[in-house]
Task: inverse folding
């Protein structure tokens, strides 16, 4: 999904209305997944105070290329899970240990936090591959 020139196409976002919509969507996904503030801040790679501003809808910063990429991946995973599962698995998948590759018994959330964008991208590809197989 994010290879070669596609990375170049992801630009920082400065339009306040678009940022507000993206931030709300990311916060909703994290809440639906049941992440605590520390986990959510780590996955989005922001300080806890910034995450708090995002949750309270007082975030007024620009979303740089990293944050736009993370938002895209988080929302893609969120949508994929909603398409793939019905019921609790829609929201619990990121926080439950997963025996499959590339998780090997770890929670997808922990793998994505530790591995950053490459691991988040792998998680998105994993979900997409499963969806394509259905």
Result:
């Amino acid at each position: 999904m994010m290879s070669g020139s596609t990375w170049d196409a992801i630009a920082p976002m400065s339009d306040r209305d678009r940022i507000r919509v993206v931030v709300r969507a990311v916060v909703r996904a994290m809440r639906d997944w049941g992440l605590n503030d520390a986990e959510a801040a780590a996955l989005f790679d922001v300080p806890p105070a910034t995450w708090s501003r995002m949750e309270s809808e007082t975030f007024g910063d620009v979303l740089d290329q990293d944050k736009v990429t993370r938002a895209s991946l988080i929302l893609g995973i969120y949508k994929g899970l909603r398409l793939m599962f019905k019921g609790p698995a829609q929201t619990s998948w990121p926080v439950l240990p997963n025996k499959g590759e590339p998780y090997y018994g770890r929670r997808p959330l922990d793998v994505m936090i530790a591995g950053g964008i490459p691991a988040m991208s792998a998680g998105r590809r994993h979900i997409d591959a499963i969806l394509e197989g259905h």
